[in-house]
């Protein structure tokens, strides 16, 4: 089990304010997946080629122990301290399948609408590489955990359906570090960690769509609680196959396989680079070769992997050390019933049940814990839109500023609910409530106590406000004249002055009302 | 069934085995005989038989997701030909950083 959790921003990336400029025009344009309005950097030649992308995602499943042995899967331990004869492939050892990994794999297969193999088996994929102590990887060839399925990506203008080819279980390899002339260092702690490989059909037609696919998939995996999807720690990795072709052409172009992308942004940028490289080569009358290329983050280019010319012949054969695994319909149904609400369902429900905008719903749903927090607050507060504004605004700012998840922030839904109710009952203005929020988070105290401690309380007593109103009218003769001569906007300015005089404590509605009353008297006097 | 010298080279390369001229000649003959022998199975009518990958009448052998003690790093490194700072050291691999 990976213990370390770090705060991550919303992962429905088109709704990620910081990455995408929020509701900006650019953000909006990027929502139009697959439409003509698509913000395509290669637009000029977009008429001549279409892009075909398929993604292979490797996700480490969240289990305590490895796929075939009892070694810990904890990240960051002392090198080579989490190995045993099984994961090192020492003679005489036998692998035994981790039931939890199997069930989590089935769970993902079902969430992606795949068909679960009634009988699954494991196979040996044979190749020599120093991070693979057995010289073969236990994987699945012809009877994977799940086959088929799909994933809907993109929101506005209708989602696009990307078909899933398969999802299969396999063991992770060790970690190889290249240190220079002396050799490469190997840490076998990762060897045997459960990996689920999720392969898409080549249905993705732009780098942006690939990024959307990844964020959608990540959202689902996080909702299912099958992986922490931490790309920095390698629990989610993505390889991409990309080719370009003339529109309408049935045949795929020559493909590149891209590796070494360590973030969604990197996947998108590597694909963008590769699309333009392919087009350039073809436009110049050159020929592409099928090859594996590595993304170089620093130089922002892909480069061919310097591999010896060798056909990949993995000589798969059934793993004799593992007997087949049969799953009953009853168990499939039982796992299906444990899926819970998935992000896209929740996104739709938030829009209908709470009447939230797609944007607000997207920000909330992109963080499972935040969306649950939202619902908890809404149980006590009448206006969901207000709760959403608070969470996507001040609360999210506090999370970002402190680099904390909503759970780590320590703010209780009840406390935020009470704070919002103090706005409802006019004890506090919205501005005052926002000022209180950091103290509320820091102290963990009851909002009323924090309000008392800060001496903040909205002045809703007409007797206390009237002198301030009189004073403001006296000091702002010009605005008063403006208002009296029909400039309605001057009133807003005067209300603002009352707020300023009271340090934001005045009840704005009452200030408004008292000003009107006083001005009416003046008007009467002037007549 | 015949097998070419090229096939022998290919298989030897995949298995990282280096062969002498004499060994190659012998394997060319042996492998062909082995293939012929196994090919006899094709004569059996299997049209009504479910594919089998294992001969044991066992399935669903699972373990629960529990930790068991690992080996001591020192023990692991003892069997490595080369080591440094707790890592196993292997000849420099120039090929990609990409994994799995
Ligand atoms: Zn182990």
- Alpha-carbon Rg of chain A, integer: 30 Å
Q: Largest sheet of chain A, if any?
A: 10 strands, mixed
User: Low-confidence runs of chain B (pLDDT<50, min 5 residues)?
Assistant: 96-100
Please state the second-level CATH architecture of the domain at 5-42 in chain B: Orthogonal Bundle
Shape of chain A: elongated
The ligands bound in this entry are:
zinc ion
Shape of chain B: flat
Can you put this structure into words, describing what you see?
The complex is a heterodimer of chains A (about 525) and B (about 100). With about 525 residues, chain A is of the alpha+beta class. Chain A has three domains: about 30-335, no CATH class; about 340-455, no CATH class; about 460-525, Orthogonal Bundle (Arc Repressor Mutant, subunit A). Chain A has helices at about 15-20, 25-30, 85-90, 100-110, 205-225, 265-285, 330-335, 345-355, 360-365, 370-380, 385-400, 405-410, 415-425, 430-445, 445-455, 460-475, 475-485, 490-500, 510-525, and strands at about 50-60, 95-100, 115, 120, 125, 135-140, 145, 150-155, 160-170, 175-180, 185, 195-200, 235-245, 255-260, 290-295, 300-305, 315-320, 325. In chain A, strands 1, 3, 7, 8, 9, 12, 13, 14, 15 and 16 form a ten-stranded mixed beta sheet that branches. A three-stranded antiparallel beta sheet of chain A has the order 6-5-17, with no helix packed on it. Residues about 1-45 of chain A have low confidence and may be disordered. By secondary structure, chain B is mostly helical. Helix content of chain B is about 35%, strand content about 10%. In chain B, strand 2 (about 85) and strand 3 (about 85-90) form a beta hairpin. Residues about 95-100 of chain B have low confidence and may be disordered. The chains are: A alpha+beta (about 525), B mainly alpha (about 100). The interface between A and B is large, with 68 and 41 residues. Strand 2 (about 95-100) of chain A pairs parallel with strand 1 (about 60-65) of chain B. The site of zinc ion has 8 residues of chain A, from helix 3.
């Amino acid at each position: 089990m990976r213990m370390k959790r770090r705060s991550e921003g919303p992962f429905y990336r088109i709704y990620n304010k910081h990455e995408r400029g929020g509701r900006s025009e650019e953000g909006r344009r990027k929502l139009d997946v697959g439409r003509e309005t698509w913000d395509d950097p290669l637009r000029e030649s977009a008429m001549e080629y279409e892009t075909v992308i398929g993604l292979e995602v490797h996700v480490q499943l969240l289990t305590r122990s490895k796929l075939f042995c009892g070694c810990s899967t904890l990240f960051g331990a002392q090198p080579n301290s989490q190995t045993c004869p099984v994961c090192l492939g020492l003679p005489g050892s036998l692998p035994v399948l981790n039931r939890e990994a199997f069930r989590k794999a089935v769970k993902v297969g079902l969430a992606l609408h795949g068909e679960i193999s009634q009988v699954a088996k494991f196979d040996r994929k044979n190749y020599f590489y120093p991070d693979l102590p057995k010289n073969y990887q236990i994987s699945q060839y012809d009877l994977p955990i799940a086959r088929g399925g799909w994933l809907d990506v993109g929101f506005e203008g209708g989602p696009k359906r990307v078909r899933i080819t398969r999802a299969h279980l396999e063991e992770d390899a060790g970690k190889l570090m290249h240190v220079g002339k002396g050799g490469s260092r190997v840490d076998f702690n990762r060897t045997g960690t459960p990996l689920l490989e999720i392969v898409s059909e080549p249905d993705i037609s732009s780098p942006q769509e690939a990024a959307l696919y990844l964020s959608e998939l990540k959202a689902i995996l996080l909702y299912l609680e099958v992986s922490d999807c931490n790309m920095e720690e390698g629990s989610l990795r993505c390889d991409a196959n990309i080719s370009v072709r003339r529109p309408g052409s049935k045949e795929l172009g020559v493909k590149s396989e891209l590796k070494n992308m360590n973030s969604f942004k990197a996947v998108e940028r590597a694909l963008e680079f590769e699309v333009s490289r392919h087009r350039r080569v073809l436009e110049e009358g050159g020929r592409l070769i099928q090859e594996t290329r590595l993304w170089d983050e620093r130089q922002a280019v892909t480069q061919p992997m310097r591999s010896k010319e060798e056909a990949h012949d993995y000589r798969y054969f059934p793993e004799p050390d593992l007997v087949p695994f049969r799953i009953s319909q009853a168990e499939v149904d039982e796992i299906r019933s444990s899926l819970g609400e998935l992000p896209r369902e929740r996104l739709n429900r938030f829009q209908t049940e709470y009447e939230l905008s797609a944007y607000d719903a997207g920000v909330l749903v992109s963080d499972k814990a935040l969306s649950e927090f939202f619902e908890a607050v809404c149980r006590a507060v009448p206006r969901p839109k207000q709760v959403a504004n608070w969470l996507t605004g001040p609360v999210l700012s506090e999370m970002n500023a402190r680099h904390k998840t909503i759970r780590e922030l320590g703010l209780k839904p009840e406390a935020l609910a009470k704070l919002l109710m103090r706005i409802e009952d006019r004890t506090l203005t919205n501005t005052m409530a926002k000022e209180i929020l950091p103290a509320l988070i820091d102290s963990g105290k009851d909002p009323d106590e924090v309000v008392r401690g800060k001496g903040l309380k909205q002045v809703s007593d007409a007797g206390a406000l009237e002198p301030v109103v009189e004073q403001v009218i006296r000091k702002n003769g010009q605005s008063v004249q403006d208002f009296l001569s029909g400039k309605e906007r001057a009133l807003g300015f005067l209300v603002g002055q009352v707020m300023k005089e009271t340090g934001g404590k005045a009840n704005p509605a009452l200030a408004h009302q008292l000003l009107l009353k006083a001005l009416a008297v003046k008007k009467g006097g002037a007549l | 069934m015949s097998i070419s010298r090229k096939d022998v080279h290919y298989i030897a390369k995949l298995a990282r085995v280096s062969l002498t001229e004499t060994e190659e000649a012998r394997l060319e003959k042996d492998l062909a005989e082995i293939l012929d022998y196994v090919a006899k199975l094709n004569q059996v009518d299997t049209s009504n038989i479910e594919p089998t990958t294992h001969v044991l009448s066992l399935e669903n052998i699972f373990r629960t997701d529990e930790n068991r003690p690992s080996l001591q790093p020192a023990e692991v490194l003892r069997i490595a030909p080369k080591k440094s700072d707790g890592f196993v050291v292997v000849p420099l691999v120039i090929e990609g950083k990409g994994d799995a």
